[in-house]
Amino acid sequence: MLKINQDGLNNLWPVRSNDSHKGSYGRILIVAGNDQYGGAGILSSSAAVYAGGGLVTLATDKTNFTAVRSTLAEVMLLDFLDFDALKAALKKSTGVVIGPGLGTNATSLKILKFVLDHVQPQTPLVIDGSAIDLIATHQIQVDHPQTIFTPHQMEWQRLSGIKIVDQNPSLNQRAVDRLKAMVVLKHYETEIYAPHTDFRQIMAGNPGMATGGSGDALTGVIIALVNQVDSLALGVTLGTFLHSYTADQIYQKEAVVLPHRLIRRLPFTLKQLQKNKLL
Ligand SMILES: NC(=O)C1=CN([C@@H]2O[C@H](COP(=O)(O)OP(=O)(O)OC[C@H]3O[C@@H](n4cnc5c(N)ncnc54)[C@H](O)[C@@H]3O)[C@@H](O)[C@H]2O)[C@@H](O)CC1
Ligand SMILES: Nc1ncnc2c1ncn2[C@@H]1O[C@H](COP(=O)(O)OP(=O)(O)O)[C@@H](O)[C@H]1O
Ligand SMILES: [Mg+2]
């Protein structure tokens, strides 16, 4: 097991080059938020923007459009039932998130299957929340080579079949090898698994994060960081650490880490971590 702390990541934070432009930092598509869970789509997409994603599009239920526009002017919008537009967006995306607040009904399933069928093979794909539940319930085989699952322990129980009380690194690793995907197993000191590789443990995070929406925000942070470095494993590690480390800064002064406040703080922590690199 490799413990991940601030010192271990010191030289690895991406720094923006002078001749870069928005296209240098990814075209990110977030497919999230049904009519009940619109907030999940807002949290995921705003986290992607605040963590430095170049161009972020949210494909969501149409009822969320006004709320998204009034919260987050930077994000572009798509109706997630407009499959022609979704197909075109998937074709040009360099990073996709599916699942936060997607719901688990027949429409949600149709959207998930469409995304799995049309995402480009080279594009990193973060699968979270409702999408994990749908994959477990309907026993959907995910063959996408660049997949990152981000389950909490209950979602991991559903996906892997390992009961929460029985979850341990050796059983988790075997399930990850079978899945052939990265897995960010979220809890206190979150673990990051990849097939046939020693797992990493994030030495940051706190119980102030135990509030609805923290994981939705994580998906956006991860996909934004994956779009700023060359390696998938590094992007996932940096994103997961940045999320928890930012939460720790807030938790020093606030008893609950509200996800929207964590998100607003991301550019500051990112700058601070970059500066350590430049010292
Ligand atoms: N503002 C919003 O729109 C929100 C939307 N959300 C979405 O709602 C959908 C349902 O997600 P939920 O996670 O609430 O529902 P789930 O039913 O998947 O999981 C929650 C249950 O798992 C239990 N659990 C056990 N171990 C856990 C662990 N380590 N971490 C978290 N929970 C653990 C919890 O106590 C709870 O009973 C997802 O698509 C999610 O993205 C939630 O993120 C909440 C906020
Ligand atoms: N007690 C805790 N200690 C550290 N981190 C926690 C704790 N509880 C929750 N978290 C973090 O908060 C996030 C919760 O994710 P998730 O349960 O998917 O939330 P949601 O679906 O409501 O957005 C994860 O990143 C998890 O690691
Ligand atoms: Mg979640």
UniProtKB/TrEMBL annotation:
<comment type="similarity">
    <text>Belongs to the NnrD/CARKD family.</text>
</comment>
<dbReference type="GO" id="GO:0052855">
    <property type="term" value="F:ADP-dependent NAD(P)H-hydrate dehydratase activity"/>
</dbReference>
<keyword id="KW-0418">Kinase</keyword>
<keyword id="KW-0520">NAD</keyword>
<keyword id="KW-0808">Transferase</keyword>
<comment type="function">
    <text>Catalyzes the dehydration of the S-form of NAD(P)HX at the expense of ADP, which is converted to AMP. Together with NAD(P)HX epimerase, which catalyzes the epimerization of the S- and R-forms, the enzyme allows the repair of both epimers of NAD(P)HX, a damaged form of NAD(P)H that is a result of enzymatic or heat-dependent hydration.</text>
</comment>
<dbReference type="GO" id="GO:0005524">
    <property type="term" value="F:ATP binding"/>
</dbReference>
<feature type="binding site">
    <location>
        <position position="215"/>
    </location>
    <ligand>
        <name>AMP</name>
    </ligand>
</feature>
<dbReference type="Pfam" id="PF01256">
    <property type="entry name" value="Carb_kinase"/>
</dbReference>
<comment type="subunit">
    <text>Homotetramer.</text>
</comment>
<dbReference type="InterPro" id="IPR029056">
    <property type="entry name" value="Ribokinase-like"/>
</dbReference>
<feature type="binding site">
    <location>
        <position position="152"/>
    </location>
    <ligand>
        <name>(6S)-NADPHX</name>
    </ligand>
</feature>
<feature type="binding site">
    <location>
        <position position="101"/>
    </location>
    <ligand>
        <name>(6S)-NADPHX</name>
    </ligand>
</feature>
<dbReference type="GO" id="GO:0052856">
    <property type="term" value="F:NAD(P)HX epimerase activity"/>
</dbReference>
<dbReference type="GO" id="GO:0110051">
    <property type="term" value="P:metabolite repair"/>
</dbReference>
<dbReference type="GO" id="GO:0046496">
    <property type="term" value="P:nicotinamide nucleotide metabolic process"/>
</dbReference>
<dbReference type="GO" id="GO:0016301">
    <property type="term" value="F:kinase activity"/>
</dbReference>
<keyword id="KW-0547">Nucleotide-binding</keyword>
<feature type="binding site">
    <location>
        <position position="216"/>
    </location>
    <ligand>
        <name>(6S)-NADPHX</name>
    </ligand>
</feature>
<feature type="binding site">
    <location>
        <begin position="186"/>
        <end position="190"/>
    </location>
    <ligand>
        <name>AMP</name>
    </ligand>
</feature>
<dbReference type="InterPro" id="IPR000631">
    <property type="entry name" value="CARKD"/>
</dbReference>
<feature type="binding site">
    <location>
        <position position="40"/>
    </location>
    <ligand>
        <name>(6S)-NADPHX</name>
    </ligand>
</feature>
<keyword id="KW-0521">NADP</keyword>
<keyword id="KW-0067">ATP-binding</keyword>
<keyword id="KW-0456">Lyase</keyword>
<feature type="domain" description="YjeF C-terminal">
    <location>
        <begin position="5"/>
        <end position="273"/>
    </location>
</feature>
<protein>
    <recommendedName>
        <fullName>ADP-dependent (S)-NAD(P)H-hydrate dehydratase</fullName>
        <ecNumber>4.2.1.136</ecNumber>
    </recommendedName>
</protein>
